[in-house]
């Protein structure tokens, strides 16, 4: 399952910035492990957006809780469970293919 996350500041930038390299190191590890597909700030820099892959909401939270800004209480996050059906030209674009996907997910459990 995919989880779309939005991270927002909970402290002034001058408290957050000294931990930037720790944050970048965390991102590198998460991308390298395949747990994060996309990450980066919104266009206006008001929030960070991270697409996390995890087997459950709890697992996604555990991963985000290890992110240095979050672990230090410098940022907070919101998670939205995202049931991705299409991406990068893959996936079904008909009602029939979406129904088959739903059946597969139901059978998996």
Task: Explain this structure.
- It is elongated and about 50 Å long.
- It contains 5 helices and 6 strands, in the order βααββααβββα.
- It is of the alpha+beta class.
- It has helices at residues 13-16, 20-33, 57-65, 68-71, 95-108; strands spanning 2-9, 36-41, 48-53, 75-82, 86-87, 90-91.
- The longest helix has 14 residues, at 20-33.
Number of strands: 6
Helix content: 40-55%
Q: Distance N terminus to C terminus?
A: 12 Å
String of helices and strands: EHHEEHHEEEH
Annotation keywords:
two-stranded antiparallel sheet; 109 residues; alpha+beta; four-stranded antiparallel sheet; 5 helices
Give the secondary structure arrangement, pairings included:
Layout: E1 2-9, H1 13-16, H2 20-33, E2 36-41, E3 48-53, H3 57-65, H4 68-71, E4 75-82, E5 86-87, E6 90-91, H5 95-108
Antiparallel strand pairs: 1-3, 1-4, 2-3, 5-6
Summarize the structure.
By secondary structure, the protein is an alpha+beta fold. It has five helices and six strands.
């Amino acid at each position: 399952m995919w989880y779309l996350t939005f991270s927002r500041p909970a402290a002034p930038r001058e408290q957050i910035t000294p931990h930037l390299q720790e944050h970048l190191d965390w991102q590198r590890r998460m991308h390298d492990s395949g747990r994060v597909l996309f990450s980066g700030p919104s266009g206006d820099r008001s929030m960070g957006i991270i697409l996390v892959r995890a087997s459950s909401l709890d697992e996604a939270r555990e991963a985000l809780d290890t992110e240095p800004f979050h672990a230090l209480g410098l940022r907070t996050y919101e998670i939205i469970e995202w049931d991705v059906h299409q991406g990068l030209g893959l996936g079904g674009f008909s009602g029939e293919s979406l129904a088959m996907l739903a059946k597969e997910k139901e059978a998996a459990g």
